[in-house]
Design a protein that fits this description.
With about 220 residues, this protein is of the alpha/beta class. It has a single domain, classed as Ribonuclease H-like superfamily/Ribonuclease H (Nucleotidyltransferase, domain 5), CATH 3.30.420.10. Helices cover about 40% and strands about 15% of the residues. It is built from 9 helices and 7 strands. The strands form 2 sheets. It has a 5-stranded mixed beta sheet with strand order 5-4-3-6-7. Strand 1 and strand 2 (about 10) form a beta hairpin. Helix 3 crosses helix 4 (about 105-120).
Length: about 220
């Protein structure tokens, strides 16, 4: 049974389900609990998007089928996005543009985006769960959970909000830059994307810190 650190140690049963972290924290007075996750950290084009979500564990507002957004189909994510935005106690989503990511570096940009999303919630959380990376400066204790988007409902919900938001942006960018096929690979470093980069050079939405981008010299108009 994993333990949650902080002022009061909390044990979470492995069979407690995806709402187990929130329920365990609530039992010892940490309510509400916010989850945060990002989408696009590993992409070489497009924005970095982070989301934060506070869910209710009441039966009427529970959301079935929550999971790591990468393990869901696009249709499942869209359905869950609609349900999350209707049933969540609070949610936010923020975006950092490629130029900001280049200036900050991806790790700093990632933590900054998560912090911004959490701090913009309408309700201040009393505990924060993040996927993989700790985030400080929030005024509340928190825990970075390994594969948090698979084991904590609020983190899974945040991963879905971030992923759907970013995918929609990439489809819009595909209309502006059709030569890159952003709607297919969503800006990640796939063979198709590299083929188009080599042919057309980077666009204004590419991240120049990535070696596979910076080594191309022709700039698309």
């Amino acid at each position: 049974m994993p333990a949650i650190g902080g002022p009061v140690p909390v044990m979470v049963r492995r069979d407690s389900g995806i709402y187990g972290y929130e329920r365990a924290l609530k039992r010892v007075g940490f309510d509400p609990v916010a989850g945060a996750d990002e989408a696009g950290r590993g992409a070489c084009a497009g924005p970095l998007v982070a989301a934060a979500v506070i869910l209710s564990d009441t039966k009427a507002r529970q959301i079935g089928g929550l999971n790591d957004s990468k393990l869901l189909t696009a249709r499942q994510r869209e359905r869950l996005y609609t349900e999350i935005t209707k049933k969540a106690v609070a949610w936010t989503v923020v975006s950092l543009e490629p130029g900001e990511c280049d200036v900050l570096g991806m790790h700093v940009a990632n933590v900054m985006a998560l912090r911004m999303a959490l701090m913009r919630l309408d309700i201040a959380p009393r505990y924060v769960l993040t996927d993989g990376f700790p985030v400080d400066g929030l005024g509340a204790p928190g825990l970075a959970v390994w594969k948090g988007d698979r084991v904590a409902a609020c983190v899974a919900a945040a991963s879905i909000i971030a992923k759907v938001t970013r995918d929609r942006v990439m489809c819009e960018l595909d209309e502006r830059y059709p030569q890159y096929e952003f709607k297919v690979h969503k800006g990640y470093c796939t063979p198709l994307h590299q083929e188009r980069l080599d042919a057309y050079g980077p666009s204004a939405t590419h991240r120049m810190r990535f070696i596979n981008v910076s080594r191309t010299t022709r700039v698309a108009s």
